[in-house]
Specification:
The protein has 731 residues and is of the alpha/beta class. It is built from 31 helices and 22 strands. Strands 13-17-12-18-19-11-22 form a 7-stranded parallel sheet. Strands 3-2-6-7-1-8 form a 6-stranded parallel sheet, with helices on both faces. A 3-stranded antiparallel sheet has the order 14-15-16. The longest helix is centred in the first third of the chain and has 21 residues, at 74-94. It is globular, with a radius of gyration of 27 Å. The protein starts with a helix and ends with a strand.
Length: 731
C-alpha cells in the first residue's frame, strides 16, 4: 500500500532544490475536518494545495470529481490545474512501478472560480432557474440597466427617496463611478451580504432601494440574464432547498484559495458544499484587497468560530510563514510595518496579531546593497527625480537585465493628475526607458478610442442624428465628446485614403439597401480596425490594449437586450429608407457613447496582467496581486485619505448589522479604512524580491507630509530606516 510518507518523499524528489516545509507537510497530512491555512506572502501556498490535492487522489484514492478546489481568478484556476497536471506527470515518469501513481487521473476534478463552478453545478442539475440564462459581465450589465431603467431606479431624480437614501448613507457617487455603478454596488451588497430584507425594510430610503432591487431582479429574469451576484444567489438557493443534494453527496473535500477575499454568500456556499466538514481554506488576511468589490476579510478572521458553530468543531490551524520570495530585509520591513498598526493588532481583527507567529525570511541575499530605499525630496516632483535617477542606474549597476524586472505600483496610474505617476513616467521615457501603462490615460480621451467611435458615428449617422439624440443639458458632456470624436474621424478621412474609401463604400451600400437589410456592428468595428491609422496604433502596446478594451465595450453594448425581449437589441443595425434606423443610431449614442463619455461603464477586468518584455510596468496595487518583481517602486501613501478608500468601509459598516447572520460593524469607518489601506500597501511591499523603493516626499500638495509607514508616523519610519545597515535614503 502506498503510504502518505512515501508520497511526501516522492513528491519532494520532484522539487528543484527544495522540499516541502514541515508546515506544508502538515497541511498535506491534515485532511479530516476543517482546516485554516494562514499563508504569508511567498510561502508556497499553491504548491501546498497542489500536493494536498494529489495526496488525496494518489494515496487516499479519492475520485477527482469528489474534490472541489476554488481559486479567486480564472487565471489562477488555469495555473493550478496546470501545476497539478505537471506534478502528476512528473510522478508518473519518475515512478513507473507505483500502481497508485500510474492509475491516478485528474479527469472530473471540480476546479475553477466560485462563479465558473456555480455555472457547472447549476448546469449539471438542470436548474430551471439557470437553464437558458446568460451570465453577463459588468459592462453588459450596466448597458442593460441603462436600457431598462425607470424613474424609480436608473433615472430617478435627486429628490427621489432612493437618491436621498444613497446620499445620506454613502454620499454622492464618486468621480468616475456614476449613479448606475453605485446602484449596482448597492444591489450587490443586498445579494452578497445576504441582507435580511424583512428586517431591512420599514424606512422610506431602504424601501426605495428594495423596490429598485426587485425591479432589477425582475428585469434580469425577463431578459434571461444573471450577474455574478445573482448567479451565486441561485446556487445558494439550490443548496439551501436541497436541489444540489445529490451532487453534494459526492463531494468529499472542498478547498478554497484566497479565502481572505470571500464574501458572506460565498462563505455560505463553501460551508454548504462541505457538509462533511472537510473544508480547507487558504489565504492571508494581511493581503485582503477587495472590500470595494464586496469581499469581507472578516470571513477568514472569524473562520474558527464559524466552524465551531456550523460543524461543532474548531479547525486545525496551520501557518505557512517561510518567505522564499523577498530579501530578508524587505520581509523585516513589511512585517514590522504590518505589526505597527496598533488597532489592527488588537482584538480579533487579524489572525497574527503583533506578527505572532512571525514570518521567517528564507529569501536570497544576492548582494550587500541596501534592500529598502526611501526616495525623499521637498515635494512629489523632487522625490520622483530621485526615483528616476535610481531606476536609470539599475542596468548599469547589473541589478537587473531587463526593464520588465521593475514595477511601479500606485493606488492610481492616471498620468494626468498633478501628483500622480505622469511626471515620473514622462521623465523615464525622456531617458529612453520604455514604460507600459495602458491605463495611464482616460480611455475616452485617447485619440485611438475617440477615432474608433467617431468613424462608427460617420458610418451609421449621415444626417447628424447625434445632435438631436444628445440635445439638452443632461447630455451635454456626451454631446461634446461625440462632436470631438467625429472631428477626429473627419481628419482621418481627409488624410487617409482607405478611410475615405471605406466610408464612401459604406454609405453607398446603406443608401442602396432595401429596408430591413442588416449589418453587424462588430463587423463595422473590425473593418475600421483594419484601416491604416488603426493598424499603426495596433503596433503600439498601449494603444493596442486600449482599442481592445473599446472593442469589448462596444461588443457588450451589442449584446444588450431590449426592454421588450431577451434578444440582443443592437447586435445588428437595420436599414430604413436608405439610412440606419433611428432606433439603432439613438442606441449607439444613448448607451455605447454616453456610457464611455460619462464614465458609466468600466473596462473589462484583466486577470492576465501583462508584463511586457523590455518595459517597466506601471500598475495599481490590485493589479500586482499574485505577481513579483526584482525591483518594486511604491508611490502614493497619502491616498489612504481618499473617499474611494472610505466608501467600502462605510458600506461594510452600514450593511453588517442587516445580514441574515449579523456581524459586528467593527471599528469606526476611518479605522476600518486604515485597516484596508495598510493591507493594500502590505501587498505592494511583498511583491518585491530584491529591492523595495518607497516614494516619500516631505510635502504633498503643499502640505507637510507627516504620515509615514510604520505607525502611520513619518518620524517613526525614518527612525527605523536611517540606522538600519540595509535600508537607505536615496541621496
Amino acid at each position: 500500500m502506498y503510504s502518505e510518507s512515501q508520497f511526501i518523499a516522492d513528491y519532494n524528489s520532484l522539487l528543484p532544490g527544495y522540499s516541502l516545509t514541515g508546515d506544508q507537510e502538515l497541511a498535506l497530512r491534515t485532511v479530516s475536518g476543517p482546516v485554516l491555512v494562514s499563508a504569508g506572502p511567498g510561502s508556497g501556498k499553491t504548491e501546498t494545495l497542489v500536493a494536498r490535492t494529489l495526496r488525496l487522489i494518489v494515496v487516499d484514492g479519492v475520485l477527482p470529481s469528489s474534490i472541489v478546489l476554488t481559486t479567486f481568478t480564472r487565471k489562477a484556476a488555469r495555473q493550478m490545474l496546470d501545476r497539478i497536471s505537471q506534478r502528476l506527470t512528473e510522478l508518473k515518469l519518475k515512478f513507473p512501478k507505483v500502481h497508485e501513481i500510474q492509475s491516478a487521473e485528474l479527469l472530473g476534478i471540480r476546479l475553477g472560480t466560485i462563479h465558473s463552478l456555480a455555472e457547472e453545478f447549476l448546469s449539471g442539475i438542470r436548474s430551471p432557474n439557470f437553464i437558458g440564462k446568460t451570465v453577463i459581465d459588468e459592462i453588459e450589465l450596466q448597458m442593460l440597466m441603462l436600457n431598462t431603467g425607470n424613474r424609480n431606479t436608473v433615472y430617478c431624480t435627486n429628490a427621489h427617496p432612493l437618491k436621498q437614501f444613497n446620499e445620506t448613507s454613502f454620499g454622492k457617487p464618486l468621480f468616475g463611478e456614476g449613479w448606475v455603478r453605485r446602484l449596482n454596488l448597492l444591489f450587490n451588497h443586498l445579494t452578497e451580504d445576504r441582507i435580511d430584507v424583512a428586517a431591512f425594510s420599514g424606512d422610506p430610503g431602504r424601501d426605495a432601494l428594495l423596490v429598485a432591487y426587485e425591479h432589477y431582479k425582475t428585469t434580469m429574469a425577463n431578459a434571461r440574464r444573471l450577474d455574478f451576484a445573482l448567479l451565486l444567489d441561485l446556487l445558494w438557493h439550490e443548496i439551501n432547498t436541497g436541489g444540489l443534494d445529490e451532487l453534494i453527496d459526492t463531494i468529499e473535500y472542498v478547498m478554497v484559495d484566497e479565502y481572505q477575499d470571500t464574501n458572506p454568500i460565498q462563505e455560505d456556499i463553501f460551508f454548504g458544499l462541505a457538509q462533511n466538514s472537510n473544508l480547507c481554506v487558504v489565504g492571508d488576511d494581511d493581503q485582503s484587497l477587495y472590500r470595494f468589490r464586496g469581499a469581507s476579510v472578516e470571513c477568514m478572521v472569524a473562520f474558527d468560530p464559524e466552524c465551531k458553530g456550523r460543524f461543532g468543531a474548531h479547525p486545525t490551524k496551520i501557518n505557512l510563514l517561510d518567505n522564499y520570495r523577498s530579501h530578508p530585509v524587505i520581509v523585516e520591513f513589511y512585517e514590522s510595518y504590518m505589526n505597527s498598526h496598533t488597532s489592527i493588532n488588537t482584538g480579533t481583527f487579524r489572525l497574527r496579531p503583533g506578527g505572532t507567529p512571525a514570518l521567517v525570511a528564507k529569501g536570497k541575499m544576492l548582494a550587500s546593497n541596501p534592500a529598502v530605499w526611501f526616495a525623499q525630496g521637498r515635494d512629489a516632483k523632487e522625490a520622483d527625480d530621485k526615483l528616476v535617477e535610481f531606476i536609470s542606474g539599475l542596468k548599469s549597476a547589473n541589478i537587473i537585465e531587463d526593464w520588465s524586472q521593475v514595477a511601479i505600483l500606485s493606488p492610481s496610474v492616471n498620468e494626468s493628475t498633478k501628483n500622480g505617476v505622469g511626471y515620473l513616467v514622462n521623465e523615464l521615457e525622456t531617458l529612453g526607458i520604455p514604460v507600459y501603462n495602458p491605463r495611464g490615460k482616460d480611455m475616452s480621451e485617447t485619440e485611438e478610442v475617440m477615432a474608433l467611435y467617431g468613424l462608427i458615428s460617420l458610418v451609421i449617422d449621415t444626417t447628424d442624428v447625434w445632435k438631436v439624440a444628445l440635445a439638452g443639458d443632461y447630455n451635454k458632456e456626451t454631446y461634446q465628446w461625440v462632436s470631438s470624436c467625429r472631428q477626429i474621424a473627419q481628419t482621418l478621412k481627409a488624410t487617409h485614403s482607405d478611410v475615405a474609401q471605406y466610408i464612401t463604400e459604406a454609405h453607398t451600400a446603406i443608401s442602396s439597401a432595401s429596408d430591413d437589410t442588416s449589418y453587424s456592428l462588430m463587423k463595422i468595428v473590425f473593418h475600421i480596425l483594419n484601416l491604416t491609422p488603426f493598424v499603426d496604433w495596433a503596433k503600439d502596446i498601449s494603444s493596442s490594449w486600449r482599442l481592445a478594451q473599446a472593442s469589448n465595450w462596444i461588443e457588450g453594448y451589442t449584446m444588450t437586450p431590449s426592454s421588450k425581449s431577451n434578444n440582443p437589441a443592437y447586435q445588428n443595425i437595420f436599414v430604413s429608407s436608405g439610412s440606419i434606423s433611428l432606433y439603432q443610431v439613438n442606441g449607439f449614442y444613448r448607451l455605447a457613447s454616453q456610457g464611455i463619455a460619462e464614465g458609466r461603464t468600466v473596462e473589462h477586468e484583466e486577470e492576465d496582467e501583462v508584463v511586457i518584455q523590455g518595459n517597466i510596468s506601471v500598475m495599481t496595487i490590485h493589479q500586482s496581486k499574485g505577481l513579483e518583481f526584482d525591483v518594486v517602486i511604491v508611490r502614493g501613501l497619502r491616498v489612504r485619505n481618499s473617499a474611494h478608500h472610505r466608501l467600502p468601509a462605510v458600506m461594510h459598516q452600514y450593511f453588517a448589522p442587516w445580514r441574515i447572520r449579523p456581524i459586528s460593524a467593527g471599528p469606526d469607518v476611518n479605522t476600518l479604512r486604515d485597516f484596508d489601506s495598510f493591507r493594500s500597501y502590505y501587498v505592494a511591499f511583498s511583491r518585491a524580491k530584491h529591492a523595495l523603493v518607497l516614494h516619500d516626499p516631505n510635502t504633498w500638495k503643499g502640505v507637510p507630509n507627516e504620515r509615514g509607514y510604520h505607525e502611520q508616523d513619518r518620524s517613526t519610519t525614518d527612525g527605523i530606516v536611517t540606522p538600519h545597515p540595509l535600508m537607505e535614503v536615496l541621496p
